[in-house]
Amino acid sequence: MAAAGSAHEVYVTPGAPTDEESRLNQIGESAIRKASLRLLPVIAVGYGLSYMDRINISFASLQMNRDLHFSASVYGFGAGLFFIGYALCEVPSNLMLLRFGAKRWLARIMFTWGLLAAAMLFVRTPLEFNVLRFLLGMAEAGFYPGVIYYLMLWFPARMRARAVSRFYVSLPLSSVVMGSVAGWLLGLGGKFGLSGWQWLFLLEGLPAAAFSLVILKMLPDNPAKAAWLTSDEKAWLQGQLKTDGEKAHLGHNAGVAQALLEPKVWMIGAYFFFALTTSYAYSFSAPAILQGVTGWSVTNVGYLVACIGLAGAAGMLLNSAHSDRSGERALHCIVPCMVMAAGFLTASYAKEPWLVVVALAASFTAFMSMLGPSNAVPMQFLAGRAAAAGLAAMNTITMFAGFVGPNWMGVMKDRTGSYDVGMRGLVLPSLLAAGTMYLLTRNLARRPVGAGAELAEEVV
Asked: In whole numbers, what is the pLDDT of the chain averaged over residues?
């Protein structure tokens, strides 16, 4: 995860550098290398645990729905309620992060969601399922935008796509872990009177609560409080981030209300809403879809999900690195959205199991590949307190996708008896995401020359 080797693309000035420029480049490389090595692995593990606890019901449902007599619609509604609780608490949570400091608030989030994720083992009725999923969403609210805001305190604008991808890669990798161990966890059924799905919730929830202690110990609130940075490295980082903030459309002087009313915040929120509607619709149904197509056991389906997760991780790292090197964001997001649409359409009509699997793998990989570049876009026009509020508002819009997507798939499965119609319906939000990103980046490119104009040009 270190930035070594790629840092020259960011810091070296055109032409032969002077001695002072060389010294500053070396200081910058050292600062970014240290931040990458010390912060990104910790954040990656935390986010991987959060995604695992959010999505693990997709595997648990293979037993839980049968044991508790849940229909696909009941399951889809409960799965989606997580995102309603998340959305309602998103902005307040990020404002609390500003008040209490990043590491304290992120640790609090991890501790409470870990306990609630483990408590899912006590579910017996649809009402209990719905209430716990809603509370789990409330507990986790603010973690993702809080992490994005935290990264803005450490990494200059031009390398944020790679910084995001190097922690966000934990999302597809958590699918690898979850897929690899799901069969074993579900096979623990009967031990100490617990079903397999109960063991899955317990043993995937408690690690998050324990990891909150690591967050508290390992994450400084900002570069000024990092004992492992030299005074020169701290000064270099603060200077770079100050310059980025001055160029941002909504910088350190912008208020929370101004960020919440900014059209670009709502546009990027709409982009993620459309893209994540497709992602969550697939993710919460993937084990059931793949088992139905292949006829394989839960264990083998888990390994298949793990392999698809590895492809997603590779796509994320490669596309993000290329986006940062080229300075281009729009096409690195739009093209993957088009691939997602083609993949879901192909999977819904294909008759051969291998073609369905390949098409869904392509859609998942395409979604993962656009996350780094797309998350770098709002960092170009937000900074300071406005960034915390703006990112939270963006993610509030986004989280409703997690309610819409699983519900759509559950209702279509109950009404038609298969997931085909549901997958065809995912073509539209994929294309809408591509169109929204095009409009947003064209809008940024047309901004008049002035504060932030130079940075806006880099977005596209």
From this structure: 83
Q: Which contacts of 189-192 are long-range, i.e. CB under 8 A and separated by 24 or more positions?
A: 189/63
Q: Which residues contact 251 (CB under 8 A, 6 or more apart)?
A: 245, 383, 384, 386, 451, 452
Tally Cβ neighbours within 10 Å of residue 104: 17
- Give the pLDDT band (50/70/90) at residue 155: confident
pLDDT at 246 over 90: no
Domain boundaries, the chain: 32-459
Give which of 414, 378, 137 is closest to 249, Cα–Cα.
Answer: 378
- Using CA atoms, how far apart are residues 425 and 47, in angstroms rounded to an integer? 29
Between CA 238 and CA 264 the distance in angstroms is 26
Q: What is the pLDDT, as a whole number, of residue 429? A: 96
Q: Model-level pTM?
A: 0.73
CATH number of 32-459: 1.20.1250.20
CA distance 378 to 397: 14
Residue 383's pLDDT is what? Answer: 63
In this structure, what are the phi and psi dihedrals at residue 250, rounded to the nearest 5 degrees?
Answer: -115, 100
Q: What is the pLDDT of residues 166-198, one digit of tens each?
A: 777 787 888 888 888 888 999 998 899 999 999
Express each pLDDT in 326-358 by its tens digit.
888 889 999 999 999 999 999 999 999 999 999
206: exposed, middle or buried (Cβ count in 10 Å: 0-12, 13-18, 19+) = middle
